Amino acid sequence: MSAPTKHFAPVARLLHWLMALMIIAMLFIGAGMAASVSQRHEWLLNLHKPLGIAILLLVVVRLFVRFATRQPPLPADLPGVQVLAAKLSHLLLYALMLVLPLVGWAMISAAGDPVMLGGSLQLPGILPADPRVFASLRKAHTFLAYLLFFTVLAHLAAALFHGWVRRDGVLQSMVRGKQG
C-alpha cells in the first residue's frame, strides 16, 4: 500500500483552476444577461452557450481524473461535521457542474433555439420546443445558478479558512504541486 499523497495530481489542479475561471466567468455572463432587458446581450448569449458546453465536457473529464488519481486525505483532526460538509459540498459542486449546462441546453431547446458552438457547429435539441417547459427550465436554470454561486462562495471560504486559519495544507494541496 502506498503512502497517501499530499497534493492533487497536476491534471486535477489544472482542471480545477481552469473550470474555476470558466464557472466564475459564466456566473458573471449569466448575471449580465439576466440584468439586461435589451437584445444587446446577444453576444453574451453566444459566449454563454459554448462555454456551458465546454464546462459540461470538462466536468466529465474532471470526474474521470478524480476517480483515476489519488486524492490527498482531509486532515485527521478535522471535525466530523466539517468532513461531512466538505464531502457534500464537493458532491453538490460536481452535480451542479453537470446539471446546470444540461438544464441550460434543455432550456434553449425548449425555446426552439439552436445551441450554437460557433460558426456553423450546432448541437441537436434535447427537448421539443414548448414555451411552458422553457419557462420552467429557465426558473430552474436561474435557481441552480444561484445555488452554484453560493456553493462556490462557501467552497472559497472553506479553502481560505484552511489556508489562513487552520494552515493544515488543504489549500496548498490544490494550489501547489510537490515542489511547494
From TrEMBL:
<keyword id="KW-0813">Transport</keyword>
<dbReference type="InterPro" id="IPR011577">
    <property type="entry name" value="Cyt_b561_bac/Ni-Hgenase"/>
</dbReference>
<keyword id="KW-0472">Membrane</keyword>
<keyword id="KW-0408">Iron</keyword>
<dbReference type="GO" id="GO:0020037">
    <property type="term" value="F:heme binding"/>
</dbReference>
<feature type="transmembrane region" description="Helical">
    <location>
        <begin position="14"/>
        <end position="38"/>
    </location>
</feature>
<feature type="transmembrane region" description="Helical">
    <location>
        <begin position="143"/>
        <end position="165"/>
    </location>
</feature>
<keyword id="KW-0249">Electron transport</keyword>
<dbReference type="InterPro" id="IPR052168">
    <property type="entry name" value="Cytochrome_b561_oxidase"/>
</dbReference>
<keyword id="KW-0479">Metal-binding</keyword>
<dbReference type="GO" id="GO:0022904">
    <property type="term" value="P:respiratory electron transport chain"/>
</dbReference>
<dbReference type="GO" id="GO:0046872">
    <property type="term" value="F:metal ion binding"/>
</dbReference>
<keyword id="KW-0812">Transmembrane</keyword>
<dbReference type="Pfam" id="PF01292">
    <property type="entry name" value="Ni_hydr_CYTB"/>
</dbReference>
<feature type="domain" description="Cytochrome b561 bacterial/Ni-hydrogenase">
    <location>
        <begin position="8"/>
        <end position="177"/>
    </location>
</feature>
<dbReference type="GO" id="GO:0005886">
    <property type="term" value="C:plasma membrane"/>
</dbReference>
<keyword id="KW-1003">Cell membrane</keyword>
<feature type="transmembrane region" description="Helical">
    <location>
        <begin position="88"/>
        <end position="108"/>
    </location>
</feature>
<comment type="similarity">
    <text>Belongs to the cytochrome b561 family.</text>
</comment>
<keyword id="KW-0349">Heme</keyword>
<dbReference type="InterPro" id="IPR016174">
    <property type="entry name" value="Di-haem_cyt_TM"/>
</dbReference>
<dbReference type="GO" id="GO:0009055">
    <property type="term" value="F:electron transfer activity"/>
</dbReference>
<keyword id="KW-1133">Transmembrane helix</keyword>
<protein>
    <submittedName>
        <fullName>Cytochrome b561 family protein</fullName>
    </submittedName>
</protein>
<feature type="transmembrane region" description="Helical">
    <location>
        <begin position="50"/>
        <end position="68"/>
    </location>
</feature>
